[in-house]
Amino acid sequence: MENNRNEILLEARDLCKYFPAKDFFGRKKAEVKAVDKINLYIRKGETFGLVGESGCGKSTLGRTLIRMYDPTSGSILFKGQDITGLKGKQLLPVHRQMQIIFQDPYSSLDPHHNVREILKESLTAVSGLSSDEMEGRMVEILKKVGLKPDDMYKYAYEFSGGQRQRIGIARALLVEPEFLLCDEPISALDVSIQAQVVNLLEDLQKEMGLTYLFVAHDLSMVRHISTRIGVMYLGRLVEIADSDELYENPLHPYTKALLSAIPLADPKLAAQSRRVMLSGELPSPMHVPTGCHFHTRCMYAREECKNHIPEMREVSPGHFVSCPYTGGNKS
Amino acid sequence: MINDKKNKDKSIRIDSVKLALKHDKAAVISLILLGIIILFALLAPFLPMEPNATDIANRLKEPSFAHWFGTDEVGRDYFARVIYGGRVSLIVAFLAMLTSLTIGVAAGTVAGFTGGIVDMILMRIVDILLSIPWMVLVTVVSIFLNPGIKSIIIVIGLFTWMEIARLVRAETLSLKEREFILYSGFSGVGTWKIITSHIIPSVFPTIIVAATTSMADAIMMESSLSFLGVGIQQPMSSWGSLLQNAQGTMQNSFHMALIPGLLIIITIFAFNKLGNLLRVYVEPKVMSGEKE
After folding, report:
1. Residues A48-84: tens digit of each pLDDT
2. For a FRET experiment, which of A7, A297, A309, A324 has its CA 20 to 30 Å from that of B186?
3. Residue A117: closest CA among chain B residues belongs to which residue?
């Protein structure tokens, strides 16, 4: 992971985010390890896709990286600067450079505010703008995301889901960030609208030189948009690789199962393809299995998997996998 | 701002209110009566009557054309006293409602939004106040204040905000997790601004409904206090104090107790019905489950 260091925009080292589960008397009963010792880096200008089942900690990882949540341990480096320990007002300059678009275009916009008020709010921390400059910036950004300047005085409920998502994007880009966390931005939209929003995101990336962390569970869309992809299972990353490499040559048994679940449009191909079925249920994140989190459902599981937490290792340049029994040079 | 969606939304709301009224004749009648009562209370100073003019020669007269509700034990026109009493009762109810709403909304939003120790302390205060019978609290406190319209408003306001605080807190707790509020915090919007610009507009429907119930409660409390003699003092009258005065003449002039009593019942009933209708208006779904 040491190569290309000068290009790296965001890096996480042993990042953990645990949520306490409290009992009736408010004592800490257990911990939900939503993000558990994650190492990853995101290069400037790339789109890092993050996939995994619901509840595996994708969104939590993303929100911890942009410091919307406070990390439990580990460290986050943004442009080489450690932003783990920043608090309160110190975080505002960081938040200006790292923005977020949410999954649900309904609950992410206040129904009592019009577009102008929504946009203006994200400029709260940006000082030194005259009201003319603010106005100009808002009009400009609305045009950029494909809305009309007249839409400024409309309320969120007057827009369709896709248009609302555009407002969300406008709000995030208004402060001119470098990094954008797309927290499942398309999973609440119709398929036809999904393509529009993804294309918009790609255009904006080229135009503004943005870096994306794209969280999703639609695997075909992720392949399309991402440069590199990370696969998460129960709070841990199990595999990271370049987008095409991951789809052509998945190594981790979980990735294989996940990819075989992508529906194929061609019925002939679909008949030929072998679906890797997983046995069992996703374990509760409060009682994660020991050793390798995946051993309860893995068809290749051995005795050692129950006790041994697998390390990430690089099997080929840029392809990391956390299973010791796959993909050549076995350790 | 005119647009179809908003108008459509409004007409659905109005339709469901109309439907609710159709099924509930008592609501229609009580609301009409409430309207008349409020109208009289508002217009009282312009009507040719004097609630405090005594006329010892005409004591305790039966209702007649000259005195619609008769006269009281010092010969004052009882109709005028009832109207002016209603004025006092309604003003007290309205201002007490505002007081308790202000405290309740402030406590509820702050407790729900900040959480932690602040929430703990505020909610335990609510629990404690709710566990003591209000009558005891109010009588004790009113001993320390000079009797009069101001102190009665303060006293009622101080002891009726707890239910509102609980309602508002519960809604704030769920709103706090909504993404638009998370994002406000993320962009550096202060707590106070988030509460005033996001949370309060969202809990507004609840607040309106709570306000009408709170008015009804306040009328009841004011009447009880005046009846007990710790409320409105002579020569000013309220419905409660009129009831108390009527005790002495119950045997001869029964109507003197009956009239303010009936007015209190009608007003409280009407405010509760009004609250129900507002609930239907702000959340039209309420009706669909109840009728048909």
Report:
1. 999 988 888 889 999 999 998 899 999 999 988 899 8
2. A7
3. B197
Nearest-by-CA chain A residue for B188: A125
Residues of A in contact with B5 (CB under 8 A): 157-158
Smallest Cα distance from B279 to chain A, Å: 19
- In degrees and rounded to multiples of 5, residue A16 shows phi and psi of -130, 140
Model pTM score: 0.80
Does A176 lie at the interface with B, CB-CB under 8 angstroms? no
- Reported as a single tens digit per residue, the pLDDT across A123-150 is 887 777 788 888 889 999 999 999 998 8
Contacts of B276 (CB under 8 A, 6+ apart): B20, B27
d(CA A311, CA A324): 8
Q: What is the ipTM of this complex?
A: 0.85
Number of CB atoms found within 10 A of residue B133's CB = 9
Shortest CB distance from B188 goes to which of A68, A95, A171?
Answer: A95
For A133-235, list the strands marked E by DSSP.
179-183, 211-215, 228-233
Q: Do A171 and B178 touch (CB under 8 A)?
A: no
Angle at the Cα of A143 (from A142 to A145), degrees rounded to 5? 70
E strand or H helix at A92? helix A92-97
H runs (alpha helix) in chain B? 4-22, 25-43, 78-114, 116-131, 134-144, 149-158, 162-176, 179-186, 191-194, 200-228, 239-246, 255-282, 285-290
In angstroms, the CA B104 to CA B165 distance is: 4
Six-digit token string for A58: 């994708």
8 Å CB contact of B183 and A122: yes
- Is residue A97 within 8 A of residue A78, CB to CB? The reply is yes
The C-alpha atoms of residue B166 and residue B109 are separated, in whole angstroms, by 9
- Bridge-based pairing of strands A179-183 and A98-101 is parallel
pLDDT one-digit tens code per residue, B170-221: 999 999 988 999 999 888 888 899 999 999 988 888 888 888 888 888 888 8
- A107 chain-B contacts, CB cut-off 8 A: 178-180
Indicate yes or no: CB of B198 within 8 angstroms of CB of A157: no
Amino acid at A103: Q
Cβ contacts of A255 within 8 Å, gap of 6 or more: A231, A238, A239, A246
CA distance A144 to A207: 10
Cβ neighbours, 10 Å, residue A159: 18
Q: Do B189 and A100 touch (CB under 8 A)?
A: no
Burial of A131 (0-12, 13-18, 19+ CB in 10 A): exposed
Distance CA B242, CA B261 (A): 9
